TrEMBL record:
This is Isocitrate lyase/PEP mutase family protein. Coiled coil: none annotated. The chain crosses the membrane at residues 224-243. Keywords: Lyase, Membrane, Transmembrane, Transmembrane helix. It comes from Plastoroseomonas hellenica. Pfam families: PEP_mutase. GO terms for molecular function: lyase activity. It comes from the Bacteria.
């Protein structure tokens, strides 16, 4: 079930910094670092699980299985990407129910046409505002607990302009969304305007390294009216860079003996992270009973 700690953090006006997680290693690492929330990135999850672009290829089944496993394996509340809700209104209802039953604490639903695309790539189109409003109303009705948070995202800024994006944000808040996500503002001035117009609601800033939106500090985001910042790409970008360096070293030297210490997490640490000490303790206690 949804973790009430996340709603409590929002109600306490505590600014939330949320790292993107995309598999169980990234989730386990982030889970032990004291964040208020983890963000289950669709881009990273699709990339790590399927090795394809975040372009509407992953299904509800793919995502609820992966994100549910993250939620169940971590103590930190998880907000997970659910694209467009995977279809029409009935699909949205079942998606909300499935994510909540899987132990996820928040669901992100966006107003793109199907197939959707990553929010910082070109060619995105949005459905009519009224269609998205119905999805959020259905999502709000479908959840079993008010602690299950609905993040409503609009991608209208890129194709229809800032004013339309803000108008949709207000409509989504009125429809019952807990967190408003205006995707891809293109300047700090635009972000200030979003905060001025919609800052009475919890606002989400999407910080993508190399994306369309400037990355502001947590202090600045809070100052201009935001409540949460997600960093969906920071983990998988770092992982890909580290893998590239490690594999290049292996290719060049033919072994990993001289791999710089900072490039290796350490086998002992990864065993601890994955729970091997518990396995070894179990085997020790039950060895004579088999």
């Amino acid at each position: 079930m949804a973790d009430p700690k996340l709603r409590a953090a929002f109600e306490a006006k505590r600014f939330i910094v949320s790292p993107g997680v995309f598999d169980m290693i990234s989730a386990k690492v982030a889970d032990g670092m004291g964040f208020d929330c983890l963000y289950g990135t669709g881009f990273g999850t699709v990339a790590s699980a399927l090795g394809v672009a975040d372009a509407g290829i992953a299904t509800y089944t793919d995502m609820v299985a992966r994100m549910g496993r993250v939620a169940q394996g971590c103590a930190t509340p998880l907000i997970a990407d659910a694209d467009t809700g995977y279809g029409g209104l009935l699909n949205v209802r079942e998606t909300v129910r499935g994510y909540e039953a899987a132990g996820i604490t928040g669901i992100q639903i966006e107003d793109q046409e199907v197939p959707k695309k990553c929010g910082h790539t070109p060619g995105r189109r949005v459905v009519p505002a009224d269609e998205m409003v119905l999805k959020i109303r259905v999502a709000a009705e479908a959840r079993r607990s008010r602690d299950f948070l609905i993040v409503a995202r609009t991608d209208a800024r890129t194709g229809l302009g800032l004013e339309e994006a803000i108008r949709r944000g207000q409509m989504l808040a009125d429809a019952g969304a807990d967190i408003i996500f205006i995707e891809s503002p293109e300047s700090e001035a635009e972000m200030v305007e979003i905060g001025r117009r919609l800052g009475r609601y919890p606002l989400l800033a999407n910080n993508v390294e190399g994306g369309r939106t400037p990355i502001l500090s947590a202090a600045r985001l809070k100052e201009i009216g935001y409540a949460i910042a997600i960093y969906p790409a920071v983990g998988f970008l770092a992982a890909a860079a580290a893998l590239e360096r490690a594999y290049a070293h292996l290719k060049q030297h033919g072994d990993s003996n001289a791999l710089p210490e900072q490039e290796s997490y350490g086998f002992k640490r990864i065993c601890e992270l994955m729970g091997f000490p518990d396995v070894w303790d179990f085997e020790k206690r039950w060895a004579m009973k088999e």
